[in-house]
Write a structure and sequence with these properties.
Blueprint lengths: L6 E5 L1 E7 L2 E8 L2 H9 L3 E5 L14 E4 L22 H16 L4 E4 L1 H9 L3 E3 L3 H4 L12 E7 L4 H5 L5 E4 L4 E4 L4 E6 L4 E5 L6 E4 L10 H16 L32
Parallel strand pairs: 1-4, 1-5, 5-6, 6-13
Antiparallel strand pairs: 2-3, 7-10, 8-9, 8-11, 11-12, 12-13
């Protein structure tokens, strides 16, 4: 690749961690699989800890990857919390700040698992807080630390179908899911109707996937983000708070998913 590698910001966890002689130390971290997949695709990964003071860091980035992790707080989409929901308010606040500015500036964005759910909430959508109550099984998170695997299908002609051409199974580790995508288009489903991919075709690159492509041998969505970031960098420059954004921020919308999905009302 000629010139500077596209810089991809990866949102990070803050969780108790242990290493060497240290135990249960609050740490900013992200699974290395995210970094490895960005690097393998030709990008430069930068880890972004939660910080909702401003989104100025986006001026240094060419793309944003919203990583997986704890549940999005239900107050973000106007629902009371389910007892099984475990949220991280500081992370929600920091990522919401970054995402709003990234969308306004038309910066390429990929949401993975929790990241896809945060995208849906940003576009005015709703989440199922405990998916087994909806689909009647634990196949999307079979056991702690164990990924599931299931069939997936995509809308012909969509970005998801283009990126995932030839793929008909994905991995899975989540107990929440998108119930209403808000202003996003639903472009992928699992065999049980759970929404697996959403996107905004009006923007340069906004894609959400419910599975974990960073853990796949061929992490295509991450590679697609890096390509989009390189292309975007050659055409525009992101300025946060200084110049008029290329596109308006998304307008929240309440409604039904644009494709068939689980029909149970979110808990």
């Amino acid at each position: 690749m000629n010139g500077r590698r596209p810089v991809i910001g990866i949102t990070a966890y803050v969780e108790p961690a242990g290493w060497a002689v240290w135990r249960d130390v609050p740490a900013t971290l992200v699974p290395h699989a995210y970094v490895r997949s960005v690097t393998a695709a030709g990008g430069r990964a930068v880890v972004l800890p939660p910080d909702d003071a401003d989104a100025d860091v986006l001026e240094l980035l060419d793309g944003l990857l919203l990583a997986g992790g704890a549940d999005v707080g239900p107050e973000r989409y106007g629902q009371p919390p389910d007892p099984r929901t475990e949220s991280r308010p500081e992370r929600d606040a920091g990522e919401t700040t970054l995402l709003a500015a990234a969308l306004a500036a038309d910066l390429p964005v990929l949401g993975v698992c929790r990241g896809m759910q945060l995208l849906a909430v940003a576009y005015g959508g709703l989440l199922h807080q405990h998916l087994p109550d909806v689909v009647g099984h634990d196949g999307h998170r079979p056991a702690p630390g164990v990924y599931g695997s299931h069939p997936v299908r995509f809308v012909a002609g969509s970005r998801a179908a283009e990126v995932m051409a030839g793929v008909d199974r994905v991995n899975s580790y989540h107990h929440q899911a998108v119930a209403d995508p808000g202003g996003l288009a639903v472009t992928g489903w699992a065999d049980d109707g759970v929404i697996e991919a959403v996107e905004d075709p009006a923007r340069r690159f906004v894609l959400g996937v419910q599975w974990h492509p960073e853990n796949e041998p061929d992490p295509r969505p991450v590679a697609a983000l890096v390509r989009a970031a390189m292309s975007a960098r050659s055409h525009t420059r992101v300025f946060i708070g200084g110049e008029k954004p290329d596109r308006p921020a998304p307008s929240p919308r309440r409604g039904r998913p644009s494709r068939p999905g689980p029909s149970v009302t979110p808990g």
